[in-house]
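Supplementary Methods S3. Input chains for the assembly prediction are listed below.
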Amino acid sequence: MLFATRLVVLLLTLAGIALPASQARAHGSFHDRVGAVSARIEREPANADPYLARSVLYREHGDYALALADLEAAARLDPGRREVDLLRGRIHLVRGRPEEAVPPLERLLEQSPDDPAANLVLARALAATGRHLEASERYSRAIDYAPVALPEPYLERARELLAAGDEQRDEALRGLDAGMQRLGPVVALAMLAIEIEVQRGRVDAALARLDGLAARSPRQETWLARRGEMLERAGRREEARAAYARVLDELDTLPAHRRQSPAMRQLESQARQRLDRLARAPE
Amino acid sequence: MRRTTASSTSAHAATIAASLALLALAAPAAAVGLIPRGATWRYLDNGTDQGAAWKEVVFVDSGWPTGRAQLGYGDGDEDTPVGFGGNASNKFITTYFRHTFNVADPGTLMGLALRLLRDDGAVVYLNGAEVHRSNMPAGPIDSLTTASSAIGGADEDAFLDVVLDPGDVVTGDNVLAVEIHQSGPTSSDISFDLELLTAPAVLVRGPYLQVGTPDSVVVRWRSDLATESRVSFGPAPGDLSTTVTEPGPTTEHEVEITGLAASTPYYYSVGTSSVTLAGGDLDHFFVTSPPPGTRQPIRIWAIGDSGQCAVSQAGCNDATAVADAYLDFAGGDITDVWLMLGDNAYNIGTDNQYTAAVFDTYPHILRNTLLWPSPGNHEFGASDSPTQSGPYYESFTMPTAGQAGGWPSGTEAYYSFDVGNIHFVALDSHDTDRTAPANPTTNICPGGQGGAMYQWLCADLAATNQDWVIAFWHHPPYTRGSHNSDNEPADSGGRMQNLRERFLPVLEQFGVDLTLTGHSHSYERSMLIDGHYGLSNTFGPEHIVDGGDGTPAPGGGDPYWKPTLGMAPHEGSVYSVVGSSSKISGGFLNHPVMAVSINELGSLVVDVDSDRLDAYWINDTGTVRDHYRITKGQAAVPSLSPRALATTAAALLLCGLLALRTRALRISRVALRSES
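Predicted structure tokens for the full assembly:
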């Protein structure tokens, strides 16, 4: 099991052990749980474990100052506890102070560079502070060290690369493709890849990706609308017109209840407006 | 097909303590050690080539020195150092080891496994026959054959699990012989230890069923020692003629059976090629799903916050009572879909807590019912969605590639599947990014915006054509039980609000019919509503599609009616909190969207049959405390009910005055609930 997970298990297990049955049964009550851990702190004032456990409870409850205070207490009692820095990082990130999350996470990763959870939290902290390239590098490490591939780090890494500048677009695209290679046609990754292809002027490549997604769906109208938008942006007016016309055709095939839904009415309206715009605009 | 052992629940509670005690033991203690770790071995470390005779039972090894394992050199952790010839740059490649053990009656051996520590390579012989080769090249081996690679780091201390055939053991003396090979003459170290265990096949979890599709199912179980994995299955308990075997030794067995026929019952057993651990009886079966779109009766059982058995015996009793009440209600009919709505194992969802609260609480249901879980906040004391690690993710298998229907999510945190004419959507409301586009109540699924879960939900719902959509996750969008959805973010970190504001617009846009959640330890069930994404004080008559309680006649009310059989937007949804399957915690229980709120233990049964959905909330004594019905489509139009008239286009003009009057009545009901 991963380092970070082990830490949390350890901490909360230690807290759980201390719960008397009557209080443990009241697991749903935040105050009961905090009360139980606090009682243990009173009994064992030199033990860092219950402070760490209470810090997690406070963080989940949004009491960030209290959570940090407990971490400081734990660090004083046991300066060698590495998990303190991971918990500090998480608290600072969730309380909206990502810049304060960076130093403790970097400290932790000096000791445990292959911890995927710490790399991911640091990546998100760096992203939130606008350090896009550094964030993307941390995302890469989180991806490399993670036991299983997941969509979110791939998506967030690509977004950071795009935020870092146009010259990173190809790298972002490669990362998205790597994600889809491992995960399959995850729509969030595919949609961003399509957007990058369009930005790079590779409309046919974008259309091919779009067609791949559309092929999985029994209904085509929204995919055709996107196709029309992409073609229109690329100045391929005739093809755009054809795509919008097919949107209307597809809508006509829908049963009335679907065709009359707000989303479909909006789609129809947009398709007609765009057809009209293409008809009126000079070639 | 009917369940055959519904009454077995009563025996369950008594087994919990025993099972926990078993799990508390280290894995080797559950097996019998024919050769224990740290045993005394004879060894030969003089660099000679022993040819073939040395591994035979009759070989005389009395001239070899003896020493306790671990044997080796170079690491400093050896109990018995062996020699390498004195020249550190030209060490002996091969060192030989032998150990004799006696078995009075091999017929009593249920199975055989060894655990081998080797650095660098090893060949293992039992009674003269090679039974295992590790990190060694194929082909003939002599004393100069080097290991395939150098072993370093943590691998130097790793014991490798190997399954052996107990049929190779003979009555009386048996000899296990091992040759350890260096990766090269300058390699710094060798290490050797070995334990040989019999009766490894003790089942400690399961079997249980996951990811059911029309043509496949995943069977999982846990054994105390690593063995191969074999599932035998067939049309009858006595005819399990088809087998699927995964040879890799593991304690976490996960076998996918494919090529099955849809809507078909299969009986099964699990174990190894030599031992059946469970099954082969009337109680171990699964029924494959019908093809997507098939209109046939589907039974769903949903439990939420059911994990109290990991905390106390009282919690076990409550969870068991809820399950027994359901089984009594079911009367032996099988459950097609079993949903867990999160907080499946208190307090923090450790592996032991999962064993106690899930696998030891419901073993009789798990073995013949397909379980589809979602995580609650209490899972994430020990599990982690961003790295998909911990007991929740390690215990369950969820579809990530759309293999059970729906769009691939690429993650087990959120997923979808089809059963019959129902599309199910599972979300992670706690530990996965819940980002949505700006203005999510009106800017719905704009494409390419929002987090991965949001975008997946949009694509998934756009790609299904099922008659019904049921979504489930943990944090309720509406509740005033032990949690209060108005009290965000202080209560639950804003998650209830996130789901309500960001995800409900998507679900309603695509026509979700029923949403199941937990978190509050009570039962709360809404009217048929639509478009309410704010705090409870913003709820008004404009959000009510049907303000009745949906109770089918006779005895009150009328069922809810949605005009379209299929996914039609904004025809109304029912939101249900099912969070009292092992505990109750009260609360105000007066959220204005709710038609019914009950502070009792219980679970929810949902029966879907073509165009009709009946939901029954059953308390722990077996009393049906809530029953509502949703019917869909023109064929289901009830005769001249206010709802039907109000929602049927052809009757709009005719019923104008009646609709106005009905609305006035609904406003009164809402006001009364708010004051209560």
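The two ends of chain B are 46 Å apart (CA to CA). Residues 2-30, 636-676 of chain B have pLDDT under 50 and may be disordered.
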